[in-house]
Amino acid sequence: MGRIITIGREFGSGGREIGRRIADELHIAYYDSEILEEIVKKTPYSQEYIEEITQGRPISLFPIHYANSWGPVVDPHLQQAIDVYQEQANILRELADKSDCVIIGRCADYILRDRNPFRIFVYSDMKTKLARCHSREKEGEVLTDKQMIKRIRKIDKRRRQYYEFYTGQKWGARENYDLMINTANSDIKKVASVVAKLFG
Amino acid sequence: MGRIITIGREFGSGGREIGRRIADELHIAYYDSEILEEIVKKTPYSQEYIEEITQGRPISLFPIHYANSWGPVVDPHLQQAIDVYQEQANILRELADKSDCVIIGRCADYILRDRNPFRIFVYSDMKTKLARCHSREKEGEVLTDKQMIKRIRKIDKRRRQYYEFYTGQKWGARENYDLMINTANSDIKKVASVVAKLFG
Per the domain annotation, does A38 fall within a domain? Predict the structure, then answer.
């Protein structure tokens, strides 16, 4: 099996932790916010703006073929979003060529499909995600369960839209992944350590 | 983690082989057709008839609440199918109480849900399933790809209907499983051996 490992994940499911642990276990590179920093260097846009446009479908009224067509795209916001996506895709390809790695999110499973990545999707039930998110609240930030559930759903909705806009594939649908891990009844440390053995 | 392991699977995906290998690796019981033989002993029906009614939704025109209602069910075919399902559920509970085990199919994930089983779903792409099914054809049985695809789809359709009729849950939907394994790009032996380590 290849050692380009991509991780899609529901917000609060622990996907990032699993990715980090797999990378540590295998002594390979781990890319998450590092990619964002690279994009900031390579495009004229601010970090905040890039965060914004890489977290959701750019413009909800545009049909998907706009993003794939060769013709000129007139909407400047959409054009910027696509520019950033393209730049991100270039960076991901460069990183994947450089060394084995774990990449979190960013449609990496799709962008690197010709490199045959091992595509993991991590998910959980709401109870577990809620507990995880509450335990990670910053000091002074106290959300009710209801507020937190709303936030989790909103972030996942944007992830789904972003993924589906650029890939034309269904986010979290089993056919798009090699392994899908539910962290609801699992010991994340153990799961990560066991999954890493697939590549040992 | 518990060591009641249930395996749902697409036809031809290698789920049964993964289950068998996990059971071997862990030195625990493995139940598949053994369950069928038990039902034959405990009900007045023939093996062929039981095979028939445990491989699909019993009667397509009946709404699902019929199977769950306490009132008398008048259709004799439906009643027999439910009798067999209930007997099968009893047998599964007895087996799960007796020792750790791997159970293939038969809604075991749902029937044993109060025992907190580890629920695996195994799937693959059509190309891989096709190759696997062809390699297992009996002597003299030669299906074209088209015929084989039709057969695979038909069996999975019946599995889905059977599962959804009795459980009210969506077959193959990630929320109903703890781990979902795509065998399309995987070495089944290695995957089974690694997954078994989750329980070691």
Answer: yes
Domain count along chain B: 1
Does residue A59 lie in a domain region?
yes
Q: Could you tell me where the beta strands, DSSP code E, fall in A27-73? A: 29-31
Tell me the pLDDT tens digit for each residue of B18-59: 999 999 999 999 999 888 888 888 888 888 888 887 877 665
Distances B108 to A137, B35, B95, B137 between C-alpha atoms, Å: 38, 11, 11, 28
Q: What's chain A's average pLDDT?
A: 89
Identify whether B60 is part of a domain. Answer: yes
Contact B179 A181 (CB under 8 A): yes
- Give residue-wise pLDDT tens across range B108-135: 999 999 999 999 999 999 999 999 999 9
**Res A61: pLDDT:** 45
Contact present, A79 and A73 (Cβ < 8 Å): yes
A195 close contact with B: CB closer than 8 A = yes
* Distance, CA of B5 to CA of B198 (rounded, Å): 11
Q: Does A198 touch chain B (CB under 8 A)?
A: yes
Q: Inform me whether the C-beta atom of residue B83 falls under 8 Å from chain A C-beta atoms.
A: no
Residue with tokens 């195994």: B122
d(CA A194, CA A198): 7
- Sheet of A101-104, strands arranged across: A29-31, A101-104, A4-9, A118-123, A179-182, B179-182, B118-123, B4-9, B101-104, B29-31
Domain that holds residue A26: 4-184
- Listed residue (B122, B99, B93, B94) closest to B29, CA to CA: B99
Instruction: Give the whole-angstrom CA distance, residue B15 versus residue A38.
Output: 42
Measured distance CA(B155)–CA(B149) in Å, rounded: 10
CB contacts of A191 in chain B (<8 Å) are 198
Counting one residue from chain A and one from chain B, the pairs whose CB atoms sit within 8 A come to 60
Of residues A98, A62, A75, A117, the one with CA closest to residue A83: A75
- The set of residues, in sequence order, having a beta carbon less than 8 Å from that of B186 and lying 6+ positions away, is A1, A178
Find the helix or strand (DSSP H, E) in which B180 lies: strand B179-182
Q: What is the CATH number of the domain that holds A87?
A: 3.40.50.300
> Among partner residues A116, A174, A191, which is closest to B172 by beta-carbon distance?
A174
Whether B145 maps to a domain, the answer reads yes
d(CA A8, CA B124): 19
Predicted structure pTM score:
0.90
